[in-house]
Amino acid sequence: MLVIHHPDQARHDVESVFRTGKFIPHFDRAERYRVFLEAVTGQGHQVVQAPAGGLEAITAVHDPAYVDFLKGVHARWMRRPEFGPIAVPSVHPTHRMHRRPTDLVGELGWYSNSTTCPITADTWTSVLASAQVAIHGAERLAAADAPVYAMCRPPGHHAYPDLMSGGCYLNNTAIAAQLLSRRFGRIGILDIDVHHGNGTQAIFWDRADVLTCSIHVDPNDGAPLYAGHADEVGGDAARGCNDNQPLPRGTGDGPWLAALDGALARIRRFAPGAIVIALGFDAAEHDPVATFRITEAGFAAAAARIAALGCPTLLVQEGGYLSPSLGRYLRSFLGGMSRPRPGC
Ligand SMILES: [Zn+2]
Hints:
With 344 residues, this protein is an alpha/beta fold. It has helices at residues 31-41, 56-59, 64-78, 104-110, 123-141, 172-184, 198-203, 253-270, 296-307, 326-337, and strands at 2-5, 16-19, 22-25, 46-49, 148-150, 187-191, 210-217, 242-247, 274-279, 313-317. It has an 8-stranded parallel beta sheet, with helices on both faces. A two-stranded antiparallel ribbon has the order 2-3. Strand 6, helix 7 and strand 7 (210-217) form a beta-alpha-beta unit. The protein starts with a strand and ends in a 7-residue tail after the last helix. Zinc ion binds next to loops.
């Protein structure tokens, strides 16, 4: 399999974030990049560094003003001597406030919804590299005769057109899907990260040519809290093109694979030209997020079912956090992709 990565993805590395009334270890550490790279290097894949690229594919799904802000916010932050070294929002507009501010602190709160997206001097470099990995993966899929794995980090599926959220700054899955839609026409997105792909849902909400499916923990019982319910089915122009399957905490392989089969049946009926898998391993039994109980065998079985669609497939890495099992989850999934089960 072709694997795309970029070393700049490891530059953004924040130790802790403020949540639940205290500082806790940040879940998305740069070490993830090294774990993923080591896992694929030992599995005989063709590993390629993404080339530098422009912003056109990024601004095709993101507000250019938001992208500009993201690029320059840390330099602006550092010009304020009274501020600390990491840009973190402390105030946000609510559903009662709708005026876009010009003040830096106000703007940061405008473009983010929590403390989960800290910004350092290296954040833009890393999120741009992660997006370029997805872009190059999409470009290479056109000529590939096998799935392509875009080893993205930081993740992206919680990012909206003009909002960073849940550790995500640029929506790599959506950027890739938009690019693929030009080449392949209708696109199916299947998000198996344990958290709802709320940013991806928002980006394609009114698109009848993109089917977005997400299998995740019930938003009444986990992040992203404000989206991911089963009755969110798409905008007026695209009703039925968004499919959410919220599942309870503690879900194991059996019900998870049954939900996956349901999503794959919908994708098959939609008849896309290509599919994008938002690939999260935080549904795993040993993931520190500790929400679902998916095993290595479960990930391998999911991959085999996805491969059995026989559709050009781009894998975009989303969540999945540091545990001794993380590399094995990736290896199990990629191994499963190369062994499709006939009749799935
Ligand atoms: Zn997640």
